[in-house]
Amino acid sequence: MATRALTAEDFSSTITSNDIVLVDFWADWCGPCKMFAPVYEAASEENSDVVFGKVDTEDQRELGAALEISSIPTVMAFRDGIMVFAQAGALPAPMLKDLIQQVRDLPMDEIKAKIAAEQQGNPPVGQ
What we know:
By secondary structure, the protein is α/β, with parallel strands linked by helices. 42% of the residues lie in helices and 22% in strands. The termini are far apart. The chain contains five helices and five strands. It has helices at residues 11-16, 31-46, 61-66, 93-105, 108-119; strands at residues 4-5, 20-26, 51-56, 74-79, 82-88. Keywords: Disulfide bond, Electron transport, Redox-active center, Transport. GO terms for molecular function: protein-disulfide reductase activity.
C-alpha cells in the first residue's frame, strides 16, 4: 500500500477506521522530510496491514496546529484510534521497522482500560 495524503477533512476518520495508522507530517521545503520520504514509502510497501498517511504541514496548517506539530518531520502512530507514539525527526529504516512492530505488539486491552480509568478519575489498575 502506498502512502496517502491526509487532510483535516479525512484525518479523524482515517485514524478511527483503521487498526494501525502512521502519519508523517512534512513540508516540501524540509530537507530531512525529503530524505525520510523514501524510507517511509518503502515501509508502506512492506506493511500492507498499516495505513501510512502524510500531512503536508504547509497545506494543512490548522491540522498541524491542532496536533501541536512544532518540528518536521514528525511521525505519529495510532492504534485503534489512540495516539501511541509521536516523535519529531526522521527515523532510519530499522527504527521505523521496529516502531511498526512495537505498535503491532501493544497490549491494547490494557491501554484502553487505563485510559478508561483515567477518564473516570480512578487510578490505573495496579497502582
